[in-house]
Amino acid sequence: MRVFPAVDILGGKCVQLVQGKRENSTAYGSPLECARRWTDEGADSLHIVNLDGAFGDSGKNAEQIKSVIDETGAFVQLGGGIRSLSDAAGWLNAGVDRVIIGTLAIKEPECIRELSAEYGSDRVVAGVDARDGQVVVSGWEEPAGDYIGWAKRFEELGAGALLFTNVDVEGLQEGIAADPVRRLLESTYLPVIIAGGISLPSDVVTLKKMGVDGIVMGSALYSGKISLKEALEVCR
Predict the structure, then answer these.
(1) For residues 208 and 228, what is the distance between their CA atoms, to the nearest angstrom?
(2) Which residue of the set 40, 44, 70, 129 is catalytic?
(3) Annotation says 129 is catalytic
(4) Taking Cα atoms as reference points, which of 75, 185, 81 lies closest to residue 122?
(5) How many domains does the chain have?
(6) Are β-strands 21-27 and 192-195 bridged in parallel, bridged antiparallel, or unpaired?
(7) Which among 28, 62, 63, 45 has a CA at the least distance from the CA of 215?
């Protein structure tokens, strides 16, 4: 199971939000400083989110993101603000190992098929962000249907993996909700990466036993509630 420390970027700084709300943000320094911290502690993969892109400014933070790619040598998956095929292609051509397609995949599902055909399915992750079992898009504001149904659709379209973010527990540092994860794993053959609520080594143990492919660690990692070392030890 792969561990992805989160490097979420807002206004050029590495931040963590609570429940995806920009007014509930805590800054932790530059994106490169944070990325280097995690790679120095043993991470070989990073999860970058361009929050300015998610909030509508897709061109912002490009320099910081490219700096992390170039300077760390880590495997990088990137989401946030990818609103078109050209946006996705631009990041893949710039050195991102794989892109996470969220709102675009819901509004234009065929983009998954096209990107997978052009770049290979292993470089395309479909984002499944869910609240109360419903996919939510556009900054987690708009419901868009059952998350299991969308996961199956993305599998049919050729996505290489799914990123499941449980919005109900994201950023709260109160632990995972296992049942929605279990339902998803039982519904797809795709590798599934989990984000949201991972706060204790026991959460990591649970997800590993369930068979998830990777975990994204954010707020609890930055606050020190769980250490990267603890998570890596469980995964290894």
Answers:
(1) 15
(2) 129
(3) yes
(4) 75
(5) 1
(6) unpaired
(7) 45
DSSP state of 127: E
pLDDT tens per residue across all 236 residues of the chain: 999 999 999 999 999 887 777 667 799 999 999 999 999 999 999 999 999 877 766 677 899 999 999 999 999 999 998 999 999 999 999 999 999 999 999 999 999 999 999 999 999 999 999 999 999 987 777 888 999 999 999 999 999 999 999 999 988 788 999 999 999 999 999 999 999 999 999 999 999 999 999 999 999 999 999 999 999 999 88
User: What is the reported pTM?
Assistant: 0.95
Catalytic residue among 8, 97, 132, 203: 8
| Per-residue DSSP letter, 179 | H
Structural tokens at position 164: 């499941």
Range of the structural domain that residue 43 is part of: 2-235
Active site residue 87: no
- Looking up residue 163, the CATH number of its domain turns out to be 3.20.20.70
Alpha helices, DSSP H, located in the chain:
31-40, 51-54, 62-72, 85-93, 103-107, 110-119, 147-157, 178-185, 201-210, 219-223, 228-235
Judge whether 165 and 196 are in contact, CB under 8 Å. Answer: yes
